[in-house]
Specification:
By secondary structure, the protein is of the alpha+beta class. It is built from seven helices and eight strands, in the order H-H-H-E-E-H-E-E-H-E-E-H-E-H-E. A hairpin with a 2-residue loop joins strand 5 and strand 6. It is globular and about 50 Å long.
Length: 245
């Protein structure tokens, strides 16, 4: 069959492995979203958003349904949600959210990623106190003053509202996420959100100027992204954007 067959077989195997990893990551994300509230996308907006993301990534309906069924308790197997915290170059800070069915494996993988990149894994609470956990919602079509007036009339609790180049961003406590979105959509049902998530927001940022520091930090991010159990990565480094998985 020759070299061509070997190359083709290797390519097929690589594609299958990539699909398997993608399906596993979205499956866990959907499971986590379903467990965070009612396992019904019509009643759970976070779950609805995760299912939409999975569909856009061509994840099969069977994979999506299996994750929802597992959250309902219809399938065996349990996942644990774990957050790891650590430090990178120039006092940079990293938060890594994981969902796993094997805590020992995940801890070993996370620790190895930090060690191999020359960074340090911290203890619980060593980093999260330097971040606010809140809602971030961005859109176009309303100024900061118009947005503030609208949300105050809707009895929403807001931390800050800012506008930059026609994009308005609302910062608010995590519990206000859905209330703010509903208020905005009641005003304009066609509004599209450029960003809408509950996330960790750094209280202060740091910069990495030395080439070695940038290389070291990017190496850590790269290794963490390769881990199946990692769902989200947050950090306080300016100029290095965390990519959506």
């Amino acid at each position: 069959m020759g070299r061509a067959h070997e190359v083709r077989a290797a390519s097929i195997a690589k594609t299958a492995a990539m699909k398997s990893k993608l399906y596993a990551k979205y499956g866990v994300a959907i499971y986590k979203a379903a467990k965070s509230g009612v396992p019904d996308p019509e009643l759970n907006q976070i779950l609805k958003k995760e299912i939409e993301r999975a569909k856009k990534a061509s994840v099969p309906a069977a994979v999506i349904q299996r994750a929802v069924d597992k959250a309902k308790g219809g399938l065996s197997g349990a996942f644990a949600e774990i957050t790891y915290e650590g430090f990178g170059p120039n006092n940079s800070m990293i938060i890594v959210e994981c969902v796993t069915d094997n805590v020992n494996r995940t801890y070993t993988d996370i620790r190895t990623a930090f060690n191999k990149s020359g960074c340090k894994l911290g203890v619980s609470g060593s980093v999260t106190h330097m971040f606010d956990f809140g809602s971030v919602i961005s859109f176009e079509g309303l100024s900061d003053e118009e947005t503030l007036e609208l949300l105050l009339e809707g009895d929403c609790d807001i931390t800050d509202v800012e506008t930059d180049e026609d994009i308005t961003t609302v910062y608010a406590p995590a519990g206000e996420f859905q209330k703010i979105k509903d208020t905005l959509l009641e005003n304009n049902s066609e509004m599209e959100f450029l960003e809408d998530e509950v996330t960790y927001i750094p209280k202060m940022y740091v910069g990495l100027e030395a080439e070695e520091d940038i290389k070291q930090f990017n190496k850590l991010l790269s290794q963490l992204r390769e881990l199946d159990d990692v769902q989200q990565i947050y950090h306080n480094v300016q100029g290095i954007e965390e990519m959506e998985e």
